[in-house]
């Protein structure tokens, strides 16, 4: 599963893990990605979205209809 939020477009960040002796190794800061199913009345079916925690809050605030409309306007097939 891709670690990208379908609503916010957030992607993993990259940086260094710094040890006590200050040696640096590459690391990846992953998002809190969840798979959520929502019922969309306009489509008459359920859609499965991969969302970050902030993306879930955005769906709760704006509503699933508005979010799905924006995702489809970008050309993403649901």
Describe the structure concisely for a colleague.
With 78 residues, the chain is α+β, with helices and mostly antiparallel strands.
Which helices and strands occur, and which strands form pairs?
Elements: E1 13-18, E2 24-29, E3 33-40, E4 45-52, H1 53-62, H2 64-73
Helix pairs in contact: 1-2
What report would you give on this structure?
This protein has 78 residues and is of the alpha+beta class. 26% of the residues lie in helices and 36% in strands. The chain contains 2 helices and 4 strands, in the order E-E-E-E-H-H. It has helices at 53-62, 64-73, and strands at residues 13-18, 24-29, 33-40, 45-52. The strands form 2 sheets. A two-stranded antiparallel sheet has the order 1-2. Strands 3-4 form a two-stranded antiparallel sheet. Helix 1 (53-62) packs across helix 2 (64-73). The radius of gyration is 16 Å and the shape is elongated.
């Amino acid at each position: 599963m891709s670690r990208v939020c379908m609503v916010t477009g957030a992607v993993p960040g990259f940086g260094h893990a710094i040890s006590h002796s200050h040696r640096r190794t590459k690391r990846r800061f992953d998002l809190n990605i969840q798979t959520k199913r929502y019922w969309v009345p306009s489509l008459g079916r359920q859609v499965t979205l991969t969302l970050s925690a902030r993306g879930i809050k955005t769906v709760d605030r704006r509503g699933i209809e508005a979010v799905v409309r924006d995702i489809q306007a970008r050309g993403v097939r649901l």
